Amino acid sequence: xxxxxxxxxxxxxxxxxxxxGVLAQGAGLMESPELFSGVTPTQWRATVRVAVSTVxxxxxxxxxxELLAQYTGAPVEFFWTESHFGSVQCAYRTPESxxxxxxxxxxxxxxxxRGRCVVVDAGSAITxxxxxxxxxxxxxxxxxxxxxxxxxxxxNTARVLxxxxxxxxxxxxxxxxxxxxxxxxxxxxxxxGSELARIGPMPLLLTGGDAVHIREALLRAGCPxxxxxxRPDLVIEGLAIVDAAR
Length: 246
Ligand SMILES: Nc1ncnc2c1ncn2[C@@H]1O[C@H](COP(=O)(O)OP(=O)(O)O)[C@@H](O)[C@H]1O
Ligand SMILES: CC(C)(COP(=O)(O)O)[C@@H](O)C(=O)NCCC(=O)O
Ligand SMILES: [K+]
Known about the structure:
Homodimer. This is Type III pantothenate kinase. The chain is an alpha/beta fold. It has helices at 41-46, 58-69, 100-113, 146-156, 177-199, 211-220, 234-244; strands at residues 2-7, 12-18, 21-28, 49-54, 76-78, 84-85, 88-89, 117-122, 125-131, 137-144, 204-207, 228-230. The strands form three sheets. The protein has a five-stranded mixed β-sheet, with helices on both faces. Strands 10-9-8-11-12 form a five-stranded mixed β-sheet, with helices on both faces. The chain has a two-stranded antiparallel ribbon with strand order 6-7. Strand 1 (2-7) and strand 2 form a beta hairpin. The protein binds adenosine-5'-diphosphate, ligand PAZ and potassium ion.
């Protein structure tokens, strides 16, 4: 059995796999004692490798390694962005500076599409990356994620006071602070959707904890439903492909 981890700036997502497929999976904060509660002692003993895609700090990477060592003696290998993998060519002149999650999501997307597509990861940050017909990465964008936008308003203004747990979904002009803030975030997500819909039609692969918000924006913008594909495990899919080829 191999354990695969996608360690983002908010959550650690993991999957335990063997040759037949996914045996267990989970997600949570690195500090949570429940993070790996879905792995049984028998499964920990049967784990022979741990592969990690991380964008967290170096200190957090070391803490993650120390945490894993409490459960298993299996070797832990970290995988980073490379200049190329198979047909996928990274657009960065310095590939090592591109987030490993973006790279592994591209590898996962390419294994499914084998053609032009866009990968959007709506996590702590929102990233969008373009792949050309031949697998060349054209580049992408990094934006604040939904929660980062809300926290930034709370931290950097004196009078924009709202309930961060709101679930307002409209995009009409707001008539209260709550509505202006949440309709504003939805409006911005809609703008991303409209921009992506404009460049279509091509497969749009969505991942990350806020992928559903991007999906709603894309459908609102008139994107054909069949081109919008939510792939919650895209980073781990790509990580497993790279790990298997090592
Ligand atoms: N159970 C959850 N816990 C934390 N954030 C969540 C959860 N479900 C959805 N989210 C949303 O998704 C974002 C985190 O998504 P995720 O893909 O885990 O981020 P990252 O890859 O940056 O760790 C949060 O900012 C939040 O808005
Ligand atoms: C942009 C990111 C923070 C997204 O990570 P996440 O939101 O999943 O935590 C991550 O891909 C990253 O740290 N990138 C490094 C800079 C770059 O990709 O150019
Ligand atoms: K991510």
